[in-house]
Predict the structure.
Amino acid sequence: MSRLRVAGYGVLCAMALSGCVTINIYFPAAAAEQAADVIIDEVWQLKNGARPAPAPAKDQP
Amino acid sequence: MSALLRRVVMMAALLLSVASVHAQMNLEVNTPALTALRASMQQRHNQLGPLYASGAVGLTRDGKVALRDANAVPLAQRQQAAALVAAENQDRAALYREIARANNHPEWENDIRSTFAQRWIEKAQAGWYYQNSAGSWVRK
């Protein structure tokens, strides 16, 4: 039983470690997209990620 | 049986905590260097905006800008337009590099550049030009 418990804790530790490794190795695509949106909204002065205003109607043929 | 149950609960709690760390992860974008770059690009956009609208400048597929139609700019202003494009590209390259560095992963620079490339194009206004994945110019 105690051997089983040790094995269980081993599995838990491995999972915890693999969680850390995952965070450190892989590129956080969703977080990067969010960061890009914040910066682009600021640089292009778009409000809170709202869609940009449509082009003036007089440009239409 | 209760020991097994306790173990299952512990495992579930651990999984949840790992998941929440993933969900909460944000990139650092507020270092002094990044704040300065953002301000510089925002200020330049006042001059670049009309160039995007006229089609003189377009958004490239690699997260930069390019002078795609010099004829859309009056001769007297072409040199200034080229200088704006060069300065913007310098800031953009620094931005991608600095975000990667501020998050202690310089090797993320290319991933950050391609993320930005997609988002610039996604957020571009109708009528602006961008490069598609094949490299040809498309009017949005």
